Amino acid sequence: MRVSRALLNEVRVRFAPSPTGQLHIGGLRTAFFNYLFAKKYGGKFILRIEDTDQTRLVKGAQGQISNILKHYDLEPDEGPVVQSERLNKYRDAAEELIENGHAYRCFCSSERLDLLRKTAARNGEIPKYDRKCANIDKNEALKMSENGEKCVIRLKLDKQNVSFKDGVFGDINQVIDESDAILLKSDGFPTYHLANVVDDKDMKISHVIRGMEWLSSTGKHHILYKSFNWTPPKYLHLSLIMRTATKKLSKRDSDAYVDYYNEKLGVLPLAILNMMIRNGSGIRNFDPNHFYSISEMVENFDPELLGRRNLLLDSDILHKYSRMAFQNSSFPEIYRKICEKFGTHDEEKVRKVVEFLRAKEENFGNLSELAEDGPFGWMLFENNGENVEDTEILKKIDSWKVEKIREVAKSHGIPEKKLLEKCRIALIGRKKGPPVSEIVDFLGEDECYRRISERL
């Protein structure tokens, strides 16, 4: 999709999540590509909270969304715009459609609608509203509503073909043959379709960038734009994130949600973003062995290179980028994330940990491994851990050189591996871990003697 130079100062895109639970990894990807597009063309990236389905709201979810965007350095230029605070706009828009003959008030009870659905199912037909209320004069319908009769507002949806161009999937033709869609519910809240179109128009959204699961809704949105006599924005639908080539991510999978990567793994944010730009994801001359900064991603982003191929959630690829992120990120960035995650603010200690891991542990990438019970937790937290058996032999160690430990093991007739295990337990409270020589390098001999003395 080419963006005209004349429009560069008018680019406005939005990320519009619903605060109904944890943010899906696909939602983060949508936010990310909207951000790239806005920054590439000098536009605005806007956060909109779509909270009109009040029955599904989860307390704290809106704040979590804002925190995630901040965590990934994708903070919006405007917003949040909250739909539940804009009900008058949707009501006015729905009434405009009634005045123009494109919508009507429907007073049918839920019992009558259930009967219509059952009858259609019995006859093997697609359930459709029979437009009983479309025949009520609009002025009479208004009086009925003002007198307290509950109603919804429906869009007249005659069967029709809709054609539009998508920036990724090209020319799209859809046959819209559905029941008259509800635009405004009886409680005054809009449905997704009305709120989506009204807000995109009101917020002057130039390009809608979202997952391809919404492609099927776009034809209906075009009908709404036409009904209002508005010009629709440009559309780019992103391919899906998949478990395998044939299997979608399940909502039951913990790694389908952003929290898994932030809280469970402690992956640095840039690792996730780098994983998302591979495989035809809009980066010119993409190099899979290069670790991109956000500024490099923006500089090399080209929406014409967005492919239709689904992105596979590959744990090996994620581990690769996690390692690269730890090696390439600045110390202040890593320090900030470690402080956020573990509540430690000892900059000298954290710097020592980071420098050691970068030099000695090339496979390190997930900050969660620094948790107190993690394989590298001993570096940040002094934990007594397991007890050492037969501590007397440790008194014989007067140098932490491996050669000296080997001599002590030989002179006392015990396997070298067994003595090294005792040393490791005494120093870091666990049998398994890095080589004792690396532990000594990190702690220093004075600290090793202090820890040993506390064990004896």
UniProtKB/TrEMBL annotation:
Q: PROSITE patterns attached here? A: AA_TRNA_LIGASE_I
Q: Name one GO molecular function term.
A: glutamate-tRNA(Gln) ligase activity
- Where would you find the membrane-spanning parts of this chain? none
Could you list this entry's UniProt keywords, alphabetically sorted.
Aminoacyl-tRNA synthetase, ATP-binding, Ligase, Nucleotide-binding, Protein biosynthesis
Q: Does the keyword Transport apply?
A: no
Keyword Lipid metabolism listed? The answer is no
Specify the protein name.
Answer: Nondiscriminating glutamyl-tRNA synthetase EARS2, mitochondrial
In short, the EC number is 6.1.1.17, 6.1.1.24
* Residue ranges occupied by any Aminoacyl-tRNA synthetase class I anticodon-binding domain in the UniProt entry: 397-454
| CDD domains, sorted | GluRS_core
What is the top-level taxon of the source organism?
Eukaryota
One Pfam family cited in the UniProt record for this chain = Anticodon_2
| Protein family membership | Belongs to the class-I aminoacyl-tRNA synthetase family. Glutamate--tRNA ligase type 1 subfamily.
Under the cellular component aspect of Gene Ontology, which terms does the record hold? mitochondrion
Could you mention a single GO BP entry for this protein? glutamyl-tRNA aminoacylation
List the catalysed reactions: tRNA(Gln) + L-glutamate + ATP = L-glutamyl-tRNA(Gln) + AMP + diphosphate; tRNA(Glu) + L-glutamate + ATP = L-glutamyl-tRNA(Glu) + AMP + diphosphate; tRNA(Glx) + L-glutamate + ATP = L-glutamyl-tRNA(Glx) + AMP + diphosphate
InterPro entries per UniProt:
aa-tRNA-synth_I_cd-bd, aa-tRNA-synth_I_codon-bd_sub2, aa-tRNA-synth_I_CS, aa_tRNA-synth_I_cd-bd_sf, Glu-tRNA-ligase_bac/mito, Glu/Gln-tRNA-synth, Glu/Gln-tRNA-synth_Ib_cat-dom, GluQ/Sye
